[in-house]
Amino acid sequence: MVQELINAGVQIALAMLLVFLVWLIFARKRSGFLKFSGLYGAPVQAMGLALVAALIFAPLTIAMFMLPGLADAATGPDTVTGRVQALGMTPETIAIILIIAFLKTSGSEEILFRGLIAKRLIAWLGFGAGNTIHALIFASIHLLIFVAPGGPAFDPVLAAALTGVGFTGGWVMAWINEKRAGGSIAPGWLMHGLSNAIAYPALAFL
Known about the structure:
Layout: H1 2-27, H2 33-37, H3 44-65, H4 70-74, H5 80-87, H6 91-125, H7 127-142, H8 156-180, H9 186-205
């Protein structure tokens, strides 16, 4: 558990450093860092909307990873769900799930994707085009599962499922952030983290 905290801290620190350097070089004179990155609180209504979205996307994620070809990759020994299966549902396992879901994965990814990439593309191209391109980039990252060690062989149906869920999730997270939360990335973080926190144990024990 301590190692996971360290790993999560390192990933978040690296994501923050990248965003900070971009701000320092390109936007320091126009905007404060917190405003630039979306690292501030969000309205309760936006957080509630993110909660509802998470409860919708978690089952979609679970269903996607139960598809033949993705199921084995999702529960391999080096995956979060594989580790949960091996350890069982103990208090330590629950803590590890929460650390990975809310810090290591969603913490660093929300800072990078919604706090930097989405915001910059939206600022340059407008919300529609900028958010769509950002969501495509976010979705494409999920296709790396096909080239990862132990990953499934490429399959167009699986690729379409990964792309569709990743694109939709990324687009909705940025929409809530920008249109309902005044640019805060907190709703996206909640939606992303909670979806993963539900999906990891569900995939491990279904």
